[in-house]
Hints:
Blueprint (H helix, E strand, L loop, with lengths): L5 E8 L5 H17 L4 E9 L8 E7 L8 H8 L3 H9 L1 E14 L9 E8 L6 H18 L4 E9 L1 H4 L4 H6 L2 E2 L4 E7 L8 H8 L2 H9 L1 E15 L3
Amino acid sequence: MPEPQAVTAVWVNVPEEHLEEFRQWHNCEHSTDRLEGPGYVALHRYMRAGGDGRHNCLNLFEGESPAAFDSPYYLKSRNNPTPWTRKCMAFLKDTERSVGRLAASMGERPRYDAPFLYTVHVDPPEGPEGEAEALAWYREEHFGRLFQVGGLLRARVFVRDERLSNETTEETRIQDMSPGARRLLALYEMVTLEPVGGPAWIEASTGTPRSAGMVKRLRRPVRERWWLDFAKWKRA
């Protein structure tokens, strides 16, 4: 199966009274509908693992390329939601959506889906070279240092595709959806969240002049912790 080169991230707040129906719809209808599309690879759904994040649920749809999120099948599906989809999307709150292309990666795809995910949604430093500098830092220093801490299986960073992230469909209208505003999305697949925020993690993140400077220059960071609630892969 090809390594995913693109991801659609959808953050939502699911009201507690609708959580059971949301899971049933997402597991039984929505995930199947999406994975039927050309270029789709997998769906992972995560729930917030404590903290004060803005959302209680994160859905990651992985594709072979950004084209998976722009195919005629995909657009037809998003513009013709089923009655169950309309019902469930209508009760979701604060929905944000961002489509990104893979820009840096370290580690192999886990043999089994990682039980935890740490995410950093952030804007690169200001200036014409800010994004390139940030991506070089992820590739050349940041990911490698975090792997030395332990607990990390794979680390990836995606750059938002502005056109696809801002695309309007019937589903976005139902949800009153807004585009994920930040430019970079870093995903850290982990066997445990225990290292995150600890002394070794902080040292790995900021313990060199380059890393300390970059962390200070990254703008509007949103750091969140998640546990894996559901996963479905497209059949090979």
